[in-house]
Design goal:
By secondary structure, this protein is an alpha+beta fold. It has helices at 6-17, 27-39, 107-125, 146-149, 204-213, 255-275, 298-309, 324-330, 354-371, and strands at 43-46, 60-64, 73-78, 91-93, 96-98, 133-138, 160-166, 172-177, 179-188, 218-219, 224-233, 243-252, 279-288, 291-292, 315-319, 335-339, 351-353. It has two domains: 6-177 and 291-371, Zn peptidases (Aminopeptidase, 3-Layer(aba) Sandwich), CATH 3.40.630; 179-288, 2-Layer Sandwich (Alpha-Beta Plaits).
Length: 373
């Protein structure tokens, strides 16, 4: 039986959460993590995402050459935390690692990093066979996947990916994640006095309202959702509104459904604007791809087998939110996300069960073992 070094894992996690890395301020932890990876024998490259974004650090791409045959596998976690995340003071209470209540703990996603690192260290110490392994640590995940969405995809060298960054206990596998588009629709009507000559105006509010009434919104089907998040415009009670701006989004785990939903929304704005003598501009921004795997997909088969190997029962879930895994899937690397056990993330009540931290590190080793042919 392969045994991880639980005390070393705990010590490293405690070290990592005390390194300040709120999103956009990842330069220091990126440098530290790069050094740790090199000490483990990885060849480490970094991209220049800091020159393209407001983030101070770069994404890290670390590669360990394989000693056995098997698909090239990728592990990933993100370096940044939400705020308040500076000056974390961790302690251990009743089997949990907690902060002092004035900050988040940062287990999202430093628990993932610590688990990956402990798995690799154990692998090296025990001279276990392994295929080529790439570890990708990203910046800006908490800012909307900024780091992964702006990464240099030519640096990715893997056949399948395993993301250590989801809620739920170890054993939960996110087999489907929604992709997203964001839309800013600008409706240009014509102003007029609302009491004297309203018939000379074209109300942008009326145009937008009628268009929205034609759209499928909310829960569209089991894979797809759509939402109007912001509706803004108008200047006074007595002016027919000449301009409004509407922010909306569409999400789906099936990319064809996502494209179709976006088309329905933008077309509704455009058609109604034309009918009513207004003008519409739709600014459509692709955020990231969706993915949805069947149980016979190799990456999901390996994930299920790895969970069983560590003595847990696999629980397959889907997520309407995005993760770096969406981006890896969009770049053609089939990837699933794992629950790693953190609780109450993004709050000052955040806590990390030590049992789950240990099990997450064991899961990393199990994934590697399942990937050896």
């Amino acid at each position: 039986m392969i045994v991880i070094n639980e005390q070393r894992l705990l010590n490293e996690f405690l070290e990592l959460v005390q390194i300040d890395s709120p999103t956009k301020e990842e330069a220091n932890i990126s440098k530290i993590l790069k050094g740790k990876l090199e000490e483990m024998g990885f060849t480490v490259k970094e991209d220049d995402v800091s020159s393209k974004t407001e983030h101070s650090g770069n994404n890290l791409f670390a590669t360990l050459e394989g000693t056995a045959q098997g698909p090239r596998i990728l592990f990933s976690s993100h370096m940044d935390t939400v705020v308040p995340g500076n000056g974390v003071k961790p302690s251990i209470k009743d089997g949990y690692i907690v902060s002092d209540g004035t900050t988040v703990l940062g287990s999202d996603d430093k628990a993932g990093i610590a688990a990956i690192f402990e798995g690799i260290r154990t692998l090296k110490e025990q001279n276990l066979p392994h295929p080529s392994i790439q570890v990708v640590l990203t910046v800006g995940e908490e800012s909307g996947l900024v780091g992964s969405r702006n990464m240099d995809p030519s640096l990715l060298q893997a056949d399948m990916g395993f993301i250590m960054d989801s809620t739920g206990k170890v054993g939960e596998i996110v087999k489907a994640g929604a992709g997203q588009y964001r839309i800013i629709s600008k409706i240009h009507g014509r102003a007029a006095h609302a009491g004297v000559n309203p018939e000379d105006g074209v109300s942008a509010i009326s145009v937008a309202s009628k268009a929205i009434s034609r759209m499928p919104l909310g829960r569209i089907d089991e894979d797809t959702t759509a939402n109007i998040g912001r509706f803004e415009g108008g200047k006074a009670f007595n002016i027919v509104t000449e301009y409004v701006e509407i922010w909306s989004e569409a999400r789906s785990m099936v990319n064809e459904k996502l494209e179709a939903q976006v088309k329905k929304m933008t077309t509704a704005f455009e058609e109604v604007a034309e009918e009513m003598g207004a003008r519409c501009e739709n600014d459509v921004k692709f955020m990231y791809s969706g993915y949805k795997f069947n149980e016979d997909t190799p990456v999901l088969q390996k994930a299920i087998a790895a969970v069983k190997r560590v003595g847990r029962e696999p629980k397959l879930t889907s997520s309407g939110g995005g993760s770096d895994g969406n981006v890896f899937n969009g770049h053609g690397i089939p990837s699933v996300n794992f629950g790693i056990g953190y609780e109450d993330i993004h709050t000052t009540n955040e806590r990390m069960p030590i049992e789950e931290l240990n099990k997450a590190a064991e899961l990393v080793l199990a994934i590697i073992a399942e990937s050896v042919e």
